[in-house]
Amino acid sequence: MKSTATRLNPFVLMLDPETVISAMEASVDLRQLRGRVCRPLDKPLIPKLFDTARDFDAQIDSEAFMDSGIELYADAQPAVQQRMH
Questions:
Q1: Cys-Cys with 56: which of 16, 29, 50, 70 at CB 3.0–4.6 Å?
Q2: Contacts (Cβ under 8 Å, ≥6 apart) of 4
Q3: Is 19 within 8 Å of 13 (Cβ atoms)?
């Protein structure tokens, strides 16, 4: 019979799967667990705004251009201004 320390050591149990299976089958706690089926959600969490990529592209193209302000940053940083031009 194996010692308690050997039976409780997870690394030893990885090398002896038969011991693990027999312990699982003899476990009263595992037999008392209730099983249930978990299913994925019926509705996606992220709303779908566009039917196709073409609709999304059309929406982006119709929006006004947003200036990033890189010119203002370059004016404030002379070293960057030299590299940009």
A1: 50
A2: none
A3: yes
Q: What is the end-to-end Cα distance of the chain in Å, rounded? A: 82
Looking up tokens 């059309």 gives 58
Residue pLDDT tens, the chain, 85 long: 456 666 677 787 778 888 888 888 888 888 888 887 777 766 666 777 888 889 988 888 888 877 777 777 777 777 665 555 5
3-state secondary structure the chain: CCCHHHHHCHHHHHHCHHHHHHHHHHCHHHHHCCCCCCCCCCCCCCCCCCCCHHHHHHHHHHCCCCCCCHHHHHHHCHHHHHHHC
